[in-house]
Amino acid sequence: MPALTRRHLLQGLTALSAGAYSLPSLSNTWRNWSGNQHATPQQIIYAQSEEQISDALRQAKNLRVVGGSHSFSALVPSSDTLLSLEPMNGLVAHDAAQYQATFWAGSRLAQVSSESAKLGQSLINEPDINVQSLGGTISTATHGTGGQLKCLSANVEKIRLFTAEGLPLECSTSAHPEIFRAAQVGLGCLGVMTQITLQNEPLYKLKETVQVCSLEEAVSTVAAERLQHRHVEFWGFVDGGKAIIKRQMLTDEPDTPPLTSSIDENELLEFVADTAQKLPWLNSTLQKLVGVFVEESTRVGPSWQIFPSPRTVAFNEMEYQIPLEQGFACFNELTEAMRNSDIQVFFPLEFRFVQADELWLSPFYGQDCVSISIHQYAQQNYQALFALAEPILRKYGGRPHWGKWHSLTSKELAPLYPHWQDFLTVREALDPQGKFLTPYLRNLLGVV
User: Fold this and answer.
1) Helix 6-14, helix 265-278: angle, nearest 10
2) Which of 59, 131, 182, 290 is deepest in the core (most CB within 10 A)?
3) CA-to-CA dists, residue 243 to 287, 303, 395, angstroms
4) pLDDT (tens digit, 9 = 90+) per residue, 97-145?
5) Sign of dihedral through CA atoms 48, 54, 60, 62?
6) What pTM value is reported for the model?
7) H/E element holding 97?
8) Could you tell me where the beta strands, DSSP code E, fall in 325-383?
9) Is 401 helix (H, G, I), strand (E, B) or coil?
10) C-alpha pair distances (Å), 34 with each of 31, 204, 214, 271, 375
11) 77 touches 438 (CB < 8 A)
12) Cβ(50)–Cβ(194) under 8 Å?
């Protein structure tokens, strides 16, 4: 059997923070990537034009938009109509002088990033998974890491939105500003976004370095280096006491050659996750092996190539955004609770930083945050792990990621968002009949 390089194991392990690309179903059934959400609507429409979207909106009683199917919460399922914008993808227009680019909302992030690069532009920040739709990314305040970098929704300059009546509406800070603020993190409840204009930066390259250390050292290191690097994060293996720190910084150094391997790291990860599930007493040992196979490494390349990591091993995820000053205490209590429980978890915790913004339903509204992500292998029941973690995350003032699993309803959510009622007022004005609402969303937002 060919030798497994340390770098390839690392790529697989860090891939645990997100999911893989999934093609849309051609039947009237839908499921998300991990399989914890599903629906059998009356119809699924794959829109190829704004005219088709307008017609669907006028005819449907209830309609939800499907993006990349990477939400673990029940944002998508509807028994009436699901609308996919997958065929409506690619560049619409760009402004070279302002470093802005407009894309169809059905574009995947990988396409948005690579096509922006052809224009001499880079996204200001990206997550390490890039197969979500642009519309879904914006609707849920998806983010990367960076103590001085906001979520992707904060980089939106303009949105073209089709209302419940099937009419187009252009919104920005200067045109319908209240609708714009609501739509920047709109949960798909205000209308169908068809075009999104992003504020980008001049094309840049990143130097990525990787370090393996103890979990305690990772916590103290990122606390000290939060603002020293453009991007810094770590993955913590609680039972094994190990962590992987990843740093990314701007550079003009020459690109490093791409790494190749005859070993499929995702197949290896699935084998290890299966083994840990069946033989839980091996979990700690398997996690400690991270320190054997992963070594310090460096790579350099264009940002759009450095940010993403390929992955196919399915999992379910909970993620909360904790106020920065509470983030480390929250993480320490969470890891202690996990160690003291009998819940078997192979996948690591992910620890990132995100800067405050002013978007009404952004989990980062008004506060710099630590983002803590909890993953459970899709073949295992995630309910016990999430039930253990969520009270701790809430105890420290956490707000849940809209696209990740959580149990909160409007009763718990409304006090966390100063502009909660402002959002509901805009939603009511745009969609008084609740065409974009489902029982889950009515419960989430508190709409009768």
Assistant:
1) 70
2) 182
3) 9, 24, 25
4) 999 999 999 999 999 999 999 999 999 999 998 999 999 999 999 999 9
5) positive
6) 0.91
7) none
8) 349-354, 369-377
9) coil
10) 8, 33, 30, 17, 11
11) yes
12) yes
